[in-house]
Amino acid sequence: MTQAAIPDAAIRVRNVSHHFGEEGDARHVRALLDTSLDVARGELQCLIGPSGCGKSTLLNVMGGLFEPTTGTVTVGDKPVRGPMPHDIAFIFQESALFPWNTIYENVMLGMMFQGVPKSEREDRARRALEAVGLDEFAAHYPSQLSGGMRQRAALARALSLETQILLMDEPFGALDEQTRMVLGEDLSVLLSRSKKTIVFVTHSLGEAVFLADRVAVFSARPGTIKEVIAVDEPHPRKPEFMTSAKFHRLRDQLYGLLHDEIRKSMLQSAKPKRAYEDQATKGEA
Amino acid sequence: MSSPRRKFNDRFASRLVQVGFLAAVLLLWYLATTRWGVNKLLLPNPLNVWDQLADVIAKGEYLNDLRITLTELAIAFLISTVSGTLLGYSISRSPYLIKVFEPLFAGIYSIPIILFLPLYVLFFGLGPASKIALGTTISFFPVVLNTIAGFGNVDPMLVKAAKSMGASDYQLFRYVLVPAAFPVILSGLRMGFTVALLSIIGSETIASLGGLGHRIVNLAENMDMARMFAYIVFAIAIAAFLNTVVSVLEARGKRQR
Amino acid sequence: MSAAAPAGAGIRLQRYMWRHPGVARLGVVLMLFVVWEIAARWFVDPMFLSPPSKVLFAFDDVLATRGVPAALRVTFFELAVAFAIAVVIGLVVGLAVGLSKFGNRSFMPIVLLLYGMPQITILPIFILYFGIGPASKIAFGVTHGMFPIIMAVAAGVQNIKPILMVGARSMGASKWHVLRYVIYPHMIPSFFAGMRLGMTGVLLGVLLAELYVSIAGIGYFTSVFTQNFDPTKLLGLVAMLAAMAIVLNEIVRRTEVRFARWRD
User: Fold this and answer.
1) Which of A205, B134, B254, C15 has the most CB atoms in a 10 Å sphere around its CB?
2) Could you tell me which CATH class the domain B56-254 is placed in?
3) Neighbours of chain B (3+ CB pairs under 8 A)
4) pLDDT digits (tens, 9 = 90+) for C94-116
5) Which one of B157, B168, B176 has the shortest CB-CB distance to A94?
6) Domain tally for chain A?
């Protein structure tokens, strides 16, 4: 289902289909089917859908972590062929911080990978850690921090790369509800200040409505975009928004769209592997 | 979760039992040879053993044999470490290669490689070369298997994250793969060392012209019981010392997490 | 057109090997044999190395050598007996140490101490005490094989989730019931894993002792073949011993797979 194309989109996804494994193979999974999507500059778009619907796969494809079986993705004017560290930064569910480095070292390493000149790194690292409120914990190891702090650290690492686009794959998934709420508010504040383009995959209806400017709803596997809902509320979003009538209406609308898809996905037999796990077993690691 | 205090107490108690056990054994040994009339040709008086040990050390008689054994150990361990880590890393790059080679190595390692010793003696003679060959062969396997496991089990998400930030292949290797694999590889090295030491002393015992193992056999053949026991104690002490050093190094190397 | 056929077959073979790593593995082993054959035939002095083809056909000769079949039979006997004794001792001591707190505190440190000792250094003492016959080989095999079994049994008994025992007691189980229906089945997988390591230890101990005694048994023949620079017969003998080891290991492994299925 195509939505109206947006002029000057930050990310353009056109007719992306993807399957894992060969036809006839036991592990053959059709993850995405003919998906098209536009992400506007400076917006926060959420991808939501039942388990296994391909939203994480689409995020990985958007970020150039692997190429889709068919279809194209463009970022700005450039077609996406591989990771684009200068344009796109990732945040994963399990922070993917290197456990043997302090969070300061983690941030510094990220910039080294991207190619930031040595002279700028220290300054950017400090600023990024301050922006997420972790400057006091710079010398700590990830294992010494709570889950919420680890994700803040992952966010700092992504921010230090100063990319236009942030792709976040269920970043708050492993955290408790209270931490999620607080981090969500902080993310909203960050967005209002920085004008970054953010694509955010989530399972949580409330989170999607609270954070997103637009929510793309996925169908069950093979995933395609069922509908895109707009949330017309300025950033930074206030906590009061969560108790408003508008919020509840949107949330109910989302639930209505998702309910059948969730039932469908639960009936599907094998649970497909997570997108990045499958790629790893294909010898990329 | 036991408190650190409790752990300390447990370890202290263990040490106490071990020391007590050794003391009891020494006492029984002494009584057996002096009071209970056990044949001196079977079991020498521990005091004689002590004297012989002191003599060996004072005269520096052990030096030559120790040098031979340690040299054999060093060379064997060096060769197996270099070849095992290089080969293990190459294989770990491809899941297919891992599937092909890992069971192969595990399978070969499961047969008693000591059986190769006569072949090596035939080929290299009774000198240090055959011991080094055996030591290398045996210690190769834990190193290569652990290297494959270490590099092969790096969390794919860490690799993905690094690549998404633009890491080059070299950067990926140096800053992600190596630190991630390091603890497992270190364990493999420790196992390789232990196994190399044992197999070298063992092969010296069976077929050699020098080294600590050979010295012990020599003394046994001459029925010089007290001196033989002295050398046995000496060899055990050396082995214990080396193993402790290696264990401490391993623990140090792993401390970062 | 005819040139495409072998190319097509080549690609199909490649794809087949890709799907079946086991086949590729076999291919690697075969290649090693080929390299051995070539090296032995054309590159290495026949005094030091014999090609596998020659060794294969020499099996008859090896077995025809007087005393070899007897030595092999005795070795097998030693392995079996040593393993049996190691299992019994391992089970008894392992249970004693694992089941009682006191046993654990007092004996486990001793077991650990002895396990860490390089037993090879006292091999000459074993031979002096037990002679050059099977007794010393069995004894040395037992001391190598029993420790992994003790450790495994003790561990298997110790890390039972207390909730399982509490559950059984709450249903009225007696101490004997708990032992038979909770502890015993729980311990079985560890026990079998320990037996696998125990067999490895027994093999090591018995073979070390056999090789050391160069005036009788296997050690005599390895010694003779080596001194006579007869690589063919030596390789043949070693191959037979390796086969014996593989068979024994397989037996233990198969038994483990059959009996220890519940713990995944």
Assistant:
1) B134
2) mainly alpha
3) A, C
4) 988 888 888 788 888 889 889 88
5) B157
6) 1
